[in-house]
Design brief:
The protein is built from eleven helices and 14 strands. It has helices at 2-33, 64-67, 71-74, 101-111, 130-133, 155-162, 167-172, 237-242, 272-279, 284-287, 307-314; strands spanning 43-49, 81-86, 91-95, 122-124, 149-153, 176-180, 187-188, 194-199, 210-215, 220-224, 246-250, 290-293, 318-319, 325-327. Strands 6-5-4-3-2-1-14 form a seven-stranded mixed sheet. Strand 3 (91-95), helix 4 (101-111) and strand 4 (122-124) form a beta-alpha-beta unit. The N and C termini lie far apart (70 Å). The relative contact order is 0.13.
């Protein structure tokens, strides 16, 4: 009887150890599958404006594109801008400081609210044309009286701001703090965000012009709101599109018939019809990465119901619309 009891005792002990080890292994597997606080959160990129420097409606325009009686189609559209929110650091960045900065920043705060007194963590500028930097004036003492907002800019752009009013006053009163960008030199803005500026050909009266490659933990985006014809650039836009997840590209004019009273050679943006033809060699997946942006008020793709819009979408491309968000 004693021997039998010993056998039973050792069997029970063995089964208990097996069960204990099994539970330990099960817990270990669950820990590997469960998300942890160490996992990087996403960045969110949001379209804040889609139009060329003059917005929609456009100053002094008497055409149907700006005077249409259909409220939905004539509703105001802001100048080209992207906003970026870092969920981990609770930081907010802008790409471009447009004349519509007030409304665009309010939109950012509506979608990504904060209790912090520091609500703006940086602005990236492409160049010194009025739709892309003049919103900086709203950071001055007359309006926001901002405290040392980092403004990331290329060398000529920084010099332009330093030596011309009223922008020099923003620097002297520490409303903005100029931060250097250099061609093709990646900048680690924080642990989640890397931004690379690259020179593009454009009318550079006051500064150089750049596009940006915006890289998050999971995805990347191109932002090229202003450029001359693609064939004037020493880079392949087709290959660049393949290398990213999203591409926000210059779509100022649909074709060469929009400004009959102006020499289109003086404003040599890539026409949408030229871009879609060039990009047809891309796979369907890569074509879907393209989001046309920086749209002139005369461009029919500004109207979501136009035939031009339908043509672009049916070809597999996208048209940037305000408020749309992208995970990075």
């Amino acid at each position: 009887m004693m021997k039998l009891n010993q056998i039973v005792f050792h069997c029970v002990k063995f089964l208990f150890l097996v069960l204990l080890l099994g539970c330990a292994n099960h817990s270990g597997n669950d820990a590997k599958k469960s998300p942890t606080q160490d996992q990087e959160p996403e960045l969110t990129l949001m379209v804040l404006g889609v139009m060329q420097d003059g917005g929609l409606p456009h100053m002094a325009c008497q055409k149907s594109c700006c005077l249409t009686s259909d409220f939905r189609l004539r509703s105001r559209k802001g100048v080209v801008s992207l906003g970026l929110y870092d969920h981990r650091s609770d930081q907010r960045y802008l790409f471009e400081a447009t004349p519509d900065l007030t409304q665009q920043w309010q939109q950012m705060l509506k979608v990504f609210p904060t209790d912090s007194s520091r609500i703006m963590d940086g602005i990236f500028l492409t160049h010194a044309h009025i739709g892309h930097y003049t919103g900086l004036a709203l950071l001055g003492k007359e309006v926001m009286a901002a405290d040392a907002v980092p403004v990331y800019a290329m060398p000529k752009m920084r010099e332009f701001l330093r030596h011309n009013g009223p922008w020099d006053q923003l620097i002297d009163q520490n409303n903005i703090r100029l931060m250097p960008l250099d061609d093709q030199k990646p900048l680690m803005v924080n642990a989640n965000l890397k931004v690379t500026a690259f020179l593009v050909p454009h009318r550079d009266e006051y500064s150089e012009t750049v596009g940006f490659r915006i890289s998050g933990p999971n995805k990347s985006a191109l932002f090229i709101p202003d450029i001359d014809k693609w064939n004037r650039w020493d880079q392949s836009i087709v290959e660049l599109i393949k290398s990213v997840d999203y591409a926000f590209l210059d779509a100022t004019f649909f074709d060469g018939n929009e400004l009959p009273n102006r020499d289109m050679n003086q404003v040599p943006h890539p026409f949408v019809v030229e871009s879609t033809t060039l990009f047809q060699s891309l796979s369907a997946e890569d074509r879907a990465k393209v989001h046309f942006i920086h749209i002139n008020h005369t461009n029919p793709i500004a109207n979501p119901e136009s035939g031009a819009t339908k043509t672009v979408l049916e070809a597999g491309f996208q048209i940037a619309r305000e408020g749309v968000k992208f995970s990075m």
